[in-house]
Amino acid sequence: MSRSSRFISTRGQAPEAGFADVLLAGLAPDGGLYMPAEWPHFGAAEIAAFSGRRYQDVAFEILSRFVGDGFTAAELREDIEAAYAGFEKPEIAPLSAMSGNRYLLELFHGPTFAFKDIALQILGRLFARALTRRGGKATIVAATSGDTGSAAIAALGGLPNITVFVMHPKGRVSEVQRRQMTTSGHANVHNIAIEGSFDDAQSIVKGLFAETAFAREVGLTAVNSINFVRIAAQSVYYFTATATLGKPATFIVPTGNFGDIFAGEAAERMGLDARRLVIATNANDIMARALNEGVYEAGAAHHTLSPSMDIQVASNFERALFEASGRDAGWVREAMAGFARDKRLELPEAVLSSLRARYDARSSDDDDTLSTINAIATTSGRIIDPHTAVAVNALRKFGFREEPMVVLSTAHPAKFADAVKHATGAEPPMPEGLQRVMELPEQLDILPADLSLIRQFISSRLAG
Description:
Layout: E1 6-9, E2 17-18, H1 19-25, E3 34-36, H2 44-48, H3 55-67, H4 73-84, E4 95-97, E5 102-106, H5 116-134, E6 138-143, H6 147-156, E7 162-169, H7 175-182, E8 189-195, H8 198-210, H9 212-218, E9 220-221, H10 228-234, H11 236-245, E10 250-254, H12 259-269, E11 276-281, H13 286-293, E12 295-297, H14 317-324, H15 329-342, E13 344-346, H16 349-358, E14 359-363, H17 366-380, H18 386-398, E15 405-409, H19 417-424, H20 432-437, E16 445-448, H21 451-463
Parallel strand pairs: 5-15, 6-7, 6-9, 7-8, 8-16, 10-11, 10-15, 11-14
Antiparallel strand pairs: 1-2, 1-3, 4-5, 12-13
């Protein structure tokens, strides 16, 4: 079996696992994140040949390198085709030209109008297939800063043998984002509004996994970006964008949990030639500070106009640290234990140099976000959401560059109508799919950010 279809933990104390095991487990049993034992490789000619091909076919080529004997080629192809059948644009992730050599990579044409659909629509189908084959049941617990929850519900709501619990920070997501989660009507979906931040919700998820007896009893798993299958699926659009442009590009990525931008590193490690990966953060600038100052230090999460990025602990950064340290699992294990204790990690010079060779970083505040939305609307008539605006603001700080500059546009502006109206004076047009959720009744529970209470809630709902 190919080493790219075997997976190891970033913390080095979990046995190797196959693709289906990684898919169903999410987090490694030692608390680390799964990574391929070896990255598969695509040559320059193979990547160039992706130009003009259907997105589904490119996704199949890339994901098939990881699947091994987890699924047959026919099963993988069937699930990829089904995953993208409901997207509004046949290109799935079209490139849209801005001025000069600047582009938006539009990732919001799926059922929930956010980039999470691109990976979760595949993951959900593969998940259900693997679960049916094994004859078991799964409890999915997801912490979301806005879009993962609705995308997970759209992918998994109504499926047999799966119960979904989604936690979002109360009052810290947009109304559209909240309603997309709370109006699903599926009996297997439970929404929890946590009285706290996204980081609190994410900490509870990790705490539930750490309670191994409970996790095993309920078949606990995760579908957010700590699940490597999400990373693999998101790497695809870096390949398709580069092949379409015909030359290496710099990618500017609005990021909170570091999953979407690490997918770019994954693509590079598979052979993609990219000029730079630019981390674009809002006032929750832990990643910009880590790269620019060399200290990864969490503080209090700030509530901003780009709420999906209101994160102070970027879980997927552990994957980048694993690679930047030369895959030194012992160091990663100690570093993550120290960070969990002190909320601070001083990056060794060799690790920091490796990160800086690949990444750049820019941060912005809400005033920057509003002025950017307004400027783009005024000069081009194009309406962008506040997360995309964070990335466009970072792009504007670079000035003219010879290589193509590609901003990952991660959500439809109508999901953040209040911010857009604040910036432009007018609400963006709302797609019919979003208008429907504004008229449906909501179902959610409001709970304190307390691990034991959340565990009791999950147990009671599963028993019921």
